[in-house]
Design goal:
Structural class: alpha/beta
Order of helices and strands: HHEHEHEEHEHHEEHEHE
Strand order of the largest sheet: 3-2-1-4-5-9-8
Radius of gyration: 17 Å
Helix content: 25-40%
Distance between the termini: 37 Å
Largest sheet: 7 strands, mixed
C-alpha cells in the first residue's frame, strides 16, 4: 500500500543518510550507543521507523540481532537491496498497528532514530508506550531520538528570513505539516518532559541529551553552515555539551528509558 514516505524513499539517503549534517548527527547517536553496547553483549533489537536501514545494518554488523521496521514499503525495499548480515530482518510495519502479537520474540532494546516517533499524536504515543512494555525483556530499554519544540537553530534561521511563523512552528500541541520531499506529513513535537510523562508508569529515565544543539537541521545542508570546518566545530561542541536541560533546544534529543 502506498505511503507518503514512499515518495521520500528514493532520495532519502542522498538528502539525509549520506549528507554531512545527517552523518554528523548520526555520529552523536552512535557515540552514545557505543557506551551501552558492550563488546561482550549481543542485544535483541527492534528498530522502528528504520527508513532505508542505515542504523539496522550498523547494529547487525556489530553482532546484534535486529528486526527493523518501517511503514514505507519503498524504504524497506531499498533497505533490502543493501548488503547486510543474514540475521537482520527488514519488515514493513505501521507503528500504530504494533502489538504484543507482532513478533514471536521479546527485545532487549526498542530503538527509533531521527524523529520517526514525531509522526504520532499524543494519544498514539501513549498507546505505543503501553505496547512496548509487553515487547521488552525484563530491564529492557527504549532509546528514541525525537524532535523537540524549541529548536534554537530553527528559530534563529527562520527569524533571520523574517518567517516568524516557521520560526516557532514546533511550539504547539497541534500537528504541523512538515515537508517530506514535497509531501506534507502531519508532525507533532515533544519535549523530554512530555515523553517522561507518557512513560512514567512503566519506565525510569536513564539519560536525556541533545542531538544537534550546534549541528544544524538537515535543510541547511547546502548552506555554508554545513561546510566541513564549521561542522567539525559544531560536532565537537555537541560532544562536549550534553546537559539534559539543553535537550529541548536541539534539533533532536535522545532519551533512554528502562523498564521498571
Amino acid at each position: 500500500m502506498f505511503n507518503d514516505f514512499d515518495t521520500a524513499a528514493t532520495h532519502y539517503d542522498d538528502v539525509f543518510t549520506n549528507s554531512r549534517i545527517g552523518k554528523a548527527q548520526r555520529e552523536l547517536v552512535y557515540s552514545y550507543l557505543h557506551s551501552i553496547f558492550t563488546p561482550s553483549q549481543q542485544f535483541s533489537i527492534l528498530e522502528l521507523n528504520c527508513g532505508t536501514g542505515e542504523d539496522a545494518i550498523k547494529f547487525a554488523q556489530k553482532g546484534h540481532k535486529i528486526i527493523a521496521t518501517d511503514i514505507s514499503e519503498k524504504m524497506i525495499a531499498i533497505a533490502n537491496t543493501k548488503k547486510h548480515p543474514k540475521e537482520l530482518l527488514f519488515k514493513t510495519l505501521d507503528i500504530n498497528q504494533l502489538s504484543i502479537h507482532s513478533f514471536s520474540t521479546k527485545f532487549d532494546l526498542i530503538f527509533s532514530n531521527f524523529g520517526g516517533l514525531n509522526c504520532l499524536n499524543s494519544s498514539q504515543f501513549k498507546a505505543f508506550i503501553d505496547t512496548t512494555t509487553e515487547l521488552l525483556t525484563p530491564n529492557g530499554k527504549l532509546i528514541f531520538i525525537i524532535m523537540p519544540k524549541y529548536c534554537l537553530w530553527e528559530r534563529f534561521y527562520f527569524s533571520i528570513k523574517r518567517d516568524f511563523q516557521k520560526a516557532t512552528r514546533r511550539n504547539t500541541t497541534q500537528a504541523v505539516l512538515a515537508n517530506v520531499d514535497g509531501i506534507q506529513v502531519p508532525t507533532w513535537y515533544y519535549n523530554p518532559v512530555d515523553i517522561c510523562s507518557f512513560a512514567k508508569k512503566y519506565y525510569v529515565v536513564n539519560q536525556i541529551r541533545p542531538i544537534g544543539l550546534f549541528i544544524p537541521p538537515s535543510y541547511l545542508e547546502s548552506s555554508f553552515i554545513a561546510s566541513k570546518p564549521l561542522l567539525t566545530i559544531f560536532k565537537n561542541l555537541d560532544q562536549y555539551l550534553k546537559n539534559p536541560s539543553l535537550a529541548k533546544y536541539a534539533d533532536h534529543f535522545l532519551i533512554e528509558l528502562q523498564k521498571k
